[in-house]
UniProtKB/TrEMBL annotation:
Keywords: RNA-binding, tRNA-binding. It comes from the Eukaryota. This is tRNA-binding domain-containing protein. It comes from Vitrella brassicaformis (strain CCMP3155). Residues 108-137 are annotated as: Disordered. One of its GO terms (molecular function) is tRNA binding.
Amino acid sequence: MAGIQSLHLWQGVYPFMAADNVTLADLATYPAVHQWMVGASAEERLAHCNVTRWFDHIQHLPGISKAVGHLTSVDIHTDPVPAAAGSANANAAAGADKSKDAMVNGVADQDKAKAKKAAKEDKKKQRADNKAPERPVEDVTRLDVRVGKITKVWQHPEADKLYCEEIDIGEEKPRQIASGLVPYVVVLCNLKAKNLKGFPSHGMVLCASSADKSNTELIRPPPEAKIGPHSWEGLEGEPDEVLNDKKNPFSKVQPDFRTSPDKIALYKDHRFMTPSGPCFCDSIVGGTIS
């Protein structure tokens, strides 16, 4: 009887023995409960309504007769409650109803929580499906490199080795950029603006350096090149508006920037191109570009 009471309390919270649906644990428990159910009075079945509900559900499952063929079906509705039970039965019935209501409400709450979680996952998946695929960080076409014309240069007031420049790259007004070189010709435009010794710098001039870092030269476009966007020979893609500091494509592709034996600026084997021809440096062969 104590086992039946424990099962009654368990079934008041959980619809089945080990999960939200029928498992082997339910089939293993069924024969013992069947033995009790056969000898239980209507009053006892009502007092343990959670067990009764569970038992009746299991015994009517398709195929249960094959799984436990030696057990007969129990009609749990034919044994009337004795009239003499009076108020005790009424109280038991009330308690059973409360237990049943608690079980139903508990299951309903679980169903609501599951439905809410499923809806949230569906919404998250839909946002992921609608989101454009993220471009590889190593995609060099994400860099916005342009030919620019220096329109103004002055010594940085607080740094002896820095110059301040205004460079026309085809925008409404010139870009202000700080660097250690006075002339500028090829500019990386979509770096996040940085403050260099109090001067807001909005880009970076690309230069070639010799292997031993003893010589540095500008990467320059052909003399007849016009101000505006540069392209990567053999590659297609639109540059990012602003490069992400945390996942910056420049830091990933820059190690493959170099100068060729004929001093042409390369990304791997792709030339830095303008409509007028490739960009180059004056004398550095096999150098790095940054």
